[in-house]
Amino acid sequence: MGAVLVDREGGAFAVATYEQRFRVWFDYPVVFTRDVFSPANPVLVQVLSRREPERRHRVAVVVDGGLGQAWPGLESEIQCYVAHHTERLTLAGPPERVPGGEVAKNDPDVVLRLQKHFQSLHLDRQSFVLILGGGAVLDAAGYAAAVTHRGLRVVRLPTTVLAQNDSGVGVKNAVNALGIKNLLGTFAPPFGVINDSAFLDSLSPRDRREGMGEAVKVALIRDAAFFAWLEAWAAALAALRPEAVATLVRRCAELHLRHIATSGDPFELGSARPLDFGHWSAHRLETLTDHALRHGEAVAIGVALDTRHSVEVGLLPAADANRVLALLERLGLPTWHPALDERDAEGRPAVLRGLADFREHLGGELTLTLLEGIGRGVETTSVSEEAILRAIAWLRRRRSAG
Ligand SMILES: NC(=O)c1ccc[n+]([C@@H]2O[C@H](COP(=O)([O-])OP(=O)(O)OC[C@H]3O[C@@H](n4cnc5c(N)ncnc54)[C@H](O)[C@@H]3O)[C@@H](O)[C@H]2O)c1
Ligand SMILES: [Zn+2]
Questions:
Q1: Structure confidence by residue, pLDDT tens digits, 62-116
Q2: Whose CA is nearest to atom 5 of ligand 1?
Q3: Ligand 1: residue whose CA is nearest its atom 10
Q4: CB-neighbour burial class of residue 198 (10 A; exposed 0-12, middle 13-18, buried 19+)
Q5: Index of the ligand 1 atom closest to the CA of residue 65
Q6: Atom 41 in ligand 1: which residue has the minimum CA distance?
Q7: Distance between CA 209 and CA 139 in Å, rounded?
Q8: 172 pocket-lining for ligand 1 (C-beta < 6 Å)
Q9: Residue 14: pLDDT above 90?
């Protein structure tokens, strides 16, 4: 254990190093159901009581304001459900609404207000926070809960397509700060996730569609058969047929879950972030457009860009890129935004700063996921801005031709 190190000048230092190592297992159920607050539906009680079935659990509830508007009776439904299961559940306080959408992540007051709320309810590390909402509210309230007492137990009820198929089933949360998307956040696996398909019924067509951007993304990097399914069902998906959307959500969530469990790097300690295919530009476009673009829409553009980028660097056949663009277009997702042409103060394309932000987030060498085939993502560290600019020009030409 003890050692004496001698430096080049002959100075001696006593050194004692203990190699500390332990493993922590995480497990959480992701349950698909319908009408979760119908009193006879056992899913929520089962998820909350899965570790301590005999106990009566204290639950605080956070509700996305947009969701609350679309479901005016929601809070009383939750209260009735808890009253029906009073031997297992008790509400720590009345459900708390927070603004829905990206404002939840942009306004630091939302997190502070929630932390005050949690404290006023005297939540402890065994209390639950049930968060109902889109990806933005799950991220902001999840962050507030993760840093309160170093982590309250969070059960997520994602209520958008994107949140049910991607953000809500994963292990991250974040808020935006200092002009940077997701600058502050934690890795905090939830206690459980419940995807209730009924919530998707009240989404605007735009919000139902945008979540499909992440499905195209994950199909492209992981699963050619899912990509072919998306092509085959494009008309039904574009028409927002509920059974087609439900299948998309389920398969996309499965792929995300499998990646997190089996990639070997669930907490992104390395320099690669394969699930973030297309995201370096997507995050930048969200910021450049002041969030006029939804995350899934920005992802669709980012996917289009890095798909053509893959062609420009000789990885992907041009015909495959045409297939990807055709699918995005058939689904009604955007593949272009004028912000791609914006210049910064030095006259450089403003979107390129996304590369530096992306590298800075992970550290190490800039590593992007590109495509070497449909269903086959590949990591690359040789990033050429010229190739990216050629890809942007190609998207612009395609847009004008269409
Ligand atoms: N943590 C992660 O791993 C991760 C992954 C992907 C995306 N995200 C984040 O998710 C956010 C995008 O989430 P989103 O696409 O769900 O959009 P969103 O959360 O911005 O919600 C969109 C709108 O829908 C409303 N809404 C939510 N549920 C509703 C319902 N059932 N009926 C009617 N309206 C409803 C919201 O109030 C909001 O106005 C982005 O901030 C993105 O960065 C996080
Ligand atoms: Zn995303």
A1: 999 999 999 999 999 999 999 999 999 999 999 999 999 999 999 999 999 999 9
A2: 167
A3: 135
A4: middle
A5: 37
A6: 136
A7: 20
A8: yes
A9: no
For ligand 1, whether the C-beta of 67 sits within 6 Å is yes
Is the shortest distance between the CB of 297 and ligand 1 below 6 Å?
A: no
- Separation between Cα atoms, residue 284 and residue 352, nearest integer Å: 8
Indicate the helix (H) or strand (E) that contains 326. Answer: helix 318-330
Q: What are phi and psi of 199, to 5 degrees?
A: -60, -30
Instruction: List, in sequence order, every residue forming a beta bridge with 378; answer none if it has no partner.
Output: 370
In 49-102, alpha helices (H) = 65-70, 74-84
Does the beta carbon of 101 sit less than 6 angstroms from any atom of ligand 1?
A: yes
Kindly report, residue by residue over 19-29, the tens digit of the pLDDT.
999 999 999 99
CA–CA distance, 242 with 95 (Å, rounded to integer): 29
Two tokens, residue 22: 């332990």
160 CA → ligand 1 middle, Å: 6
Read off the pLDDT band of 257 (50, 70, 90). very high
- Residue 363 has φ and ψ, to the nearest 5°, of 80, 175
Give the residue, out of 295, 299, 361, with the most ligand 1 atoms within 8 A of its beta carbon, to mutate for a pocket test.
295
The conformation of residue 160, written as its DSSP 8-state character, comes to S
Which pLDDT belongs to residue 364? 78
CA distance 78 to 95: 8
Q: Which helix H or strand E contains 150, and what residues bound it?
A: none
Cβ pair 99, 65 in contact under 8 A: yes
Map tokens 């004028």 to a residue.
338
Decide: 210 and 178 in contact? Cβ < 8 Å.
no
pTM over 0.70: yes
Look-up of token digits 């065994």: 126
